[in-house]
């Protein structure tokens, strides 16, 4: 990212954001910034609130307190019509990027264009083919999802997520279930599509190694709080125990491997808990 980009106001800014599902507080004061042009990763253990963060940024959920701003506008104070217009400029790739199984690859990618625009069919065709070309699957346009490998299906889901040329692309676990080669391909595509579209991207992921290769900045979330953040170089050099556990895939550390239990000694040799 160039210095001039960094100087601009952030595209996404969360300040002291709290959120609860009913009585259950999930986010407990989140501060997070995404600058224009950046690819940012949000990492953390299962259930720590990562997907909830994406939903807040996408305007599908409203913060209990604090501010969620996109392009400098607080989503909580935006008229509904403006929020819908804003959402159309966000691309989303949900967990496993489910495709419509009864539609061809072409129709899957064309879907958002047909839903949200009145473009003539010739232009829809050109746009779909350009997006499929960008993910290397123009030749697969007539196939059905069942005829694709997992990595190919994910690439189609990527093409669909960027069909409307979003300013912000959000990915929920884009690497889930992929083999190591497909994972590398998807990672590089996320970076390339971001840069080619002049967009910004946020991805929720467990894959720290792939993230370190492609992102500009990483936030670590634990128990609803940001516990560490930094550039890939800062994260690699970090001595923070939480970061260390993630980067070195250690089973135990601040994120416990064991569900809380009494010491095992008393359980062995036939003794009862
Ligand atoms: N609609 C809901 N109603 C009530 N609780 C919810 C709801 N959605 C999520 N939760 C709870 O909120 C917490 C955070 O969920 P979230 O999906 O944001 O976590 P996550 O970090 O994305 O998890 P994972 O990595 O496992 O997908 C979890 O404990 C979850 O059970």
Automatic annotation (TrEMBL):
SUPFAM superfamilies: P-loop containing nucleoside triphosphate hydrolases. It comes from the Bacteria. SMART domains: AAA. The keyword Cytoplasm does not apply. Residues 12-248 form the ABC transporter domain. The keyword Isomerase does not apply. It holds the Pfam family ABC_tran. Signal peptide: none annotated. Keywords: ATP-binding, Cell membrane, Membrane, Nucleotide-binding, Transport. One of its GO terms (molecular function) is ATP binding. This is ABC transporter ATP-binding protein. It comes from Thauera sinica. The lineage of its organism: Bacteria, Pseudomonadati, Pseudomonadota, Betaproteobacteria, Rhodocyclales.
């Amino acid at each position: 990212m160039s210095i001039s980009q960094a100087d601009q106001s952030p595209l996404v800014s969360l300040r002291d954001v709290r959120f609860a599902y009913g009585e259950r507080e999930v986010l407990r004061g989140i501060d997070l910034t995404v600058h224009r042009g950046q690819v940012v990763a949000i990492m953390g253990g299962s259930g720590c609130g990562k997907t909830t963060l994406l939903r807040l940024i996408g305007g599908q959920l409203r913060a209990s307190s604090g501010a969620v701003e996109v392009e400098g506008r607080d989503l909580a104070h935006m008229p509904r019509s403006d929020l819908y217009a804003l959402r159309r400029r966000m691309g989303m790739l949900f967990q496993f990027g489910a495709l419509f199984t009864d539609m061809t690859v072409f129709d899957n990618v064309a879907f958002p264009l047909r839903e949200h625009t009145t473009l003539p069919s010739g232009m829809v065709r050109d746009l779909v083919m350009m997006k499929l070309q960008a993910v290397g699957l123009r030749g697969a346009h007539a196939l059905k999802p069942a005829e694709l490998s997992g990595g190919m299906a994910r690439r189609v889901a990527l093409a669909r997520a960027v069909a409307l040329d979003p300013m912000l692309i959000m990915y929920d676990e884009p690497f889930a279930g992929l083999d190591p080669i497909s994972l590398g391909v998807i990672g590089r595509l996320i970076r390339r599509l971001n840069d080619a579209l002049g967009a910004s991207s946020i991805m929720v992921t467990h894959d720290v190694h792939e993230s370190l290769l492609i992102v500009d900045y990483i936030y670590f979330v634990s128990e609803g709080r940001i516990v560490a953040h930094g550039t890939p170089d800062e994260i690699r050099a970090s001595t923070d125990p939480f970061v260390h556990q993630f980067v070195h895939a250690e089973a135990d550390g601040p994120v416990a491997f064991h569900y809380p239990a009494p010491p095992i000694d008393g359980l062995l040799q036939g003794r009862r808990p």
